[in-house]
Amino acid sequence: MRALRPGGLGGRIFLILAVGLLGTQTLAALVMVLERDQSARAVMLTTLQRDVAVAVALLDRLPAQERAAWLPLLDRPTYRFALGAGAPGAPALSPRAEMIAGEIRTALAPRFPVRFDAIPGPTERLQAHVVLDDGAGLTIDVRPTARPVAAWLPLALAVQLLVLMTCIGLAVRLALRPLTRFAEAADRLEPGRPADRFAESGPDEVVRAAKAFNAMQARIARHLDERVRILAAISHDLQTPITRMRLRVETGIEGPEQERLLMDLDAIEALVREGIAYARSVHGAIEPAIRLDLRAFIESLVFDYQDTGRDVTITALPDATLTTRPRALRRILTNLIDNALRYAGRAEIEVRAAGAGITVAVLDRGPGIPADQLDAVLLPFVRLEASRSRDTGGTGLGLAIADQLAAAIGGRLALRNREGGGLEAAVTLA
């Protein structure tokens, strides 16, 4: 069970509960065994006292020739009667033997004096020697033993432990299930994707946390939407004054100054277009998903580049189909290919299987990206090139747009430096 892995919270809670309950069960079992031993001992001593008194009185009244026939009838599991002086032994008795001797002495006193001997051997053994009224010797051979444990008791304990561990596991799983669901919901929380509401059901504490989580999702979505709308509005509104400025410059005096102003206006327009594209990329899921022949799609994209004289090739392109949003995917690959062409002069496209999904990789042999900047370049307006020239550094939105669109269509964009130099930008689609 994944929730009960040793290093996790579930495993720790399970271990604490299991150790505590097993310790309690062990103490309860010890108390039960001790109480059972004391009760059995008390019953045995009481029975021993009564049986010995009756047996000795009976044998004393029987004729000597009939006593031997009655001896088997008087035997018990822990003691038996024998005629004669018995086996030789030592008068020193153990505490338990002394307690048994006291019960026998109480049963026979004062009519029959008793002498006790401890018989040596692998197990404890005690003999009581009695002289009957006719002078015949009688020996009571006592072999105290613990009562055997019932054969079904170990099985019952094993079943009890199994039920106990099962109940603990279910309790821990039930307690941790909301945490697992919260973690899964947080993992699914992506900008541009419709947020799934967390089920507001279960215990009161879970319901309260679910309502708070849903409210947080709504606040984040509103905040992101507001930022995107502001960016889109600003970028859109800038187009009108830029157009007026262009008209004025184009109708003005021709010369180097006019060319520089037109270049600046081109850069501003490009930045505005990229800003609008970035704002729309957050809502890339608006486009309907269709079933797409990926081979034909990639070939069409590459042929478009080759028709304009740019060096874009395909190194691996298996037959594959997937359900995705084609305009968003085209924009992602276009941004990645343009980025490779800008820094390396050529781009290679490789399509390969990635588990249950498909990876489309754009490879180049450019300067690559410092390892500590691979994540930073996916943020908007981040440029590694120190100059502010758009021809060399771009607007800083291309990779950010690709990353946003990849998340919006349920994919993931990853960058890594290639061995021998260059960069691999891989889009993995489910």
Name some characteristics of this structure:
430 residues, alpha+beta, Beta-Lactamase, Helix Hairpins, Heat Shock Protein 90, five-stranded mixed β-sheet, four-stranded antiparallel β-sheet, 10 helices, 11 strands, 55% helix, 15% strand, cell membrane, membrane, phosphorelay sensor kinase activity, transmembrane
Outline:
Its main location: membrane. 55% of the residues lie in helices and 15% in strands. The chain is of the alpha+beta class and 430 residues long.
Question: Can you characterise this structure?
Answer:
- This protein has helices spanning 9-61, 64-74, 95-108, 153-188, 204-250, 256-281, 294-307, 326-344, 390-393, 398-408, and strands at residues 79-83, 114-118, 126-131, 137-142, 290-293, 311-316, 321-324, 346-354, 357-363, 411-417, 423-429.
- By secondary structure, the chain is of the alpha+beta class.
- It has three domains: 6-142, Beta-Lactamase, CATH 3.30.450; 189-282, Signal transduction histidine kinase, dimerisation/phosphotransfer (DHp) domain (Helix Hairpins, Orthogonal Bundle); 286-429, 2-Layer Sandwich (Heat Shock Protein 90), CATH 3.30.565.
- A hairpin with a 5-residue loop joins strand 10 and strand 11 (423-429).
- Helix 1 packs antiparallel against helix 2, helix 5 (204-250) packs antiparallel against helix 6 (256-281) and helix 8 (326-344) packs antiparallel against helix 10 (398-408).
- The radius of gyration is 47 Å and the shape is rod-shaped.
- Mean pLDDT is 79; it is low at 386-392.
- This is histidine kinase.
